[in-house]
Amino acid sequence: MRTYTGNRRLWMAGATVLAVAVATGMRNTVVAAQSGEGVLASGVFEGSPSFTLSNGKLELIFLPQGASMASVILTDDGEKMNPLWNPVRMNREQGRDVKPSSTTGHMICVDGFGPPSPDERKAGFPFNGEATSQKFDVQSSRSGSTAEATLSAKLPIVQEQVTRTLRMVDGENVVYVESQLENLMGFDRPINWGEHATIGSPFLEPGVTVVDLSAGRSQTTEYSNPSSGGGANASTQRRLASGKEFKWPDAPALDNNSIVDMRQTPEHPHYVDHTATQMDPARKLEWATALNPKRRLILGYIFRREDYPWVQTWGNYPSATSMARGLEFATQPFSLSRRDATTQGSMFGTPMYRWLPAKSKITTKFLMFYARVPEGFTRVDDVRMENGWIVVQDRAAQKEIRLAASRTLD
How do residues 321-330 score in pLDDT, each as one tens digit? Predict the structure, then answer.
């Protein structure tokens, strides 16, 4: 087994905390250091106020509006390749109207993940919950080799307080994310929570980029009229059968006679896909990865199954330069209203919502890693945490990478 090892050396405190430059194409400008021992650099990302958290290995840009993680890059990458979805840049390159937006990259969708019910819509409740439209208060601090940023906001309609802490340890290829949701009301309630992690072009490359999961049972989305198309773009068409169970990654095609490999990015993009996968019930820690073997870059997530038992894979592939794919780990399998998710209750024996008790708090944890892989690394068969490392394996190639991870998800 060949092993490719990330640098575990801890960088000097203070020498790695400020990001000084990001790729010109990202339209991000670092303006000044924020308070909190100089942990954050403030700037502008695609017209939106932003902050940068850095640790010598990674530079993470996040937005106070919506708490979205908009960009992550390797600090020594001359190309400054951001694997996360950037719809503002895509619209600009396509000659469309360009407006700043917090719906970019990795979004937190809480409390709500999908369309509101008709009554909720009348009451002003937005698609994917209130968090994406709220301005978060941002505080930062450093403790030894760990820098952190804490974002908090009140969700006025549902009367909940959401707090999100991003942590980075010097010299690691990892972002640790801990989130807390507090019920400000005196009654138990079912909640819907989705981590709308989305990759995009050019990291998402036709016929090249592959997605792997610690998958259990899967199912395609049920469409009221599968032959009508229904993509986010007029140039896309559906290619999957409606409401069919399958074993990941072999999804039934629209003609019910052929198979679509859901790992692969379409070589000739003009499609839209949506599937749900129950994460492996035998695991406590689940994983999802996106690998571009040509660029030798991998983006991955590790999360607790008790927090997020489902992954939605949404693929919008209108053209090679404007593709997006969601690796959306969540409390529910599909994009549903709170009423529909609660009424249906479960799928494959796994709940489709989570309870938030009266006047109480619940906490979720996950981590994101971004790193290089060796030549010939083409798929991911397993991701695990052991003895302070993240181990990512391609068994067929007999290769693995090991990334330092000093914090756990306990």
Answer: 999 999 999 9
Is the model's pLDDT at 234 over the cut of 90?
A: no
Tell me which H or E stretch contains 371. Answer: strand 361-372
Q: Name the residue among 358, 307, 351, 349 with its Cα closest to residue 108.
A: 307
Q: Which two tokens stand for residue 205?
A: 């490359």
First-to-last alpha carbon distance for the chain, in angstroms, is 29
Beta-bridge partner residues of 141:
148
> In three state form, how does the secondary structure of 191-257 look?
ECEEEEEEEECCCCCCCCCEEEECEEEEEECCCCCHHHCCCCCCCCEECECCCCEEECCEEEECCCC
- Average pLDDT score over residue span 378-405: 98
With the CA atoms of 91, 95, 100 and 104 taken in that order, what torsion angle do they form, in degrees rounded to the nearest 10? 10
**For the whole model, what pTM was predicted?**
0.91
CA nearest neighbour of 308 among 409, 388, 186: 409
The pLDDT of residue 235 is 66
Domains of the chain (ranges, CATH numbers): 2-404 (2.70.98.10)
196, with CB counted inside 10 A (0-12, 13-18, 19+), is buried
Per residue in 128-139, pLDDT tens? Answer: 999 999 999 999
Distance (Å, rounded) from C-alpha 7 to C-alpha 9?
Answer: 6
Residue 122 phi, psi dihedral angles, 5° rounding: -65, -30
User: Are residues 197 and 326 in contact, defined by beta-carbon separation less than 8 angstroms?
Assistant: yes
